[in-house]
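Hello forum,

I keep getting stuck at the same step: I have a sequence, I want structure tokens, and every attempt I make locally crashes halfway through. Rather than fight my setup again tonight, could one of you with a working pipeline run this one for me? It's a single chain of 276 residues.
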Amino acid sequence: MASTTSDSAPFADPDGFDQAAELMASAGRITVLTGAGVSTDSGIPDFRGPNGLWTQNPNAQAFSDIDTYMGDIDVRRQVWLQRRSHKAWEAAPNAAHRALATLDTTGRLNAVITQNIDGLHQTAGLAEDKVIEVHGTMLRVMCMNCGLRTPSATVMARLDEESDPRCVSCGGIQKSDTISFGQLLDPEVIERATTAARESDLFIAVGTSLTVHPVAGLCDVAMMGRANLIIVNAEPTPYDDYASVVLRQPIGEVLPGLVHRVPKRGHGIFHDFEDL
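Reply #2:
Ran it on my machine without issues. Output:
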């Protein structure tokens, strides 16, 4: 996604923006699905975009395979080093994250379902119970043997002396508390996400290619519940033909502009979004 020129200026688009704003302003329960495109303005590259991690280096995708990780100590060592230098550790929420946090203050936000593991939605001000992390979080490390969860910073601090830090409780292999290829999604988390989609009367997919299931299928769940679908993404998605509105403009401009047009529940005036 392109960098924004202003965090606060509403984005004008008479061919779709106004319709999207009207849908948001009239919705009672808005559920938002966010993908990697939401965090690119924070300096965190996406995966499948033109400058994505896997686009630039197809071999990097192999490091996300659970069997490869568990079976090869050299891969684990490389993954730990890559994780320690990940740009997300120094990233700050951008205008899109802040806009969703502000949307919550209108009383219309049901939940944010995110495929991101960076924790920036919470850093921007969303409560933990409003964020459903379907792919886990990089802020914790999990022992694959006993299930012990430890803050990532605690484990990262051991990397100067241990290239493959093992669990302090049982000696088992540890990995980031995120979903790797070959791992099953947490059924309880997916049930929460499915319920949030089903309960919504407006479902907004932002910065996601909508090609990875079952998460992409949440669009179907929402639409079967008669929710309108808005897609904000630079590239085409498989769900574009089913959406009420598709917006291609930069996420960091579109989301603040849309939220600027949403009144608080029970009010007929726009919210003050000077802090976006």
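Strands lie at 30-34, 109-114, 131-133, 136-143, 149-151, 174-178, 202-206, 228-232, 245-247. If your local run keeps crashing, start a new thread with the error log.
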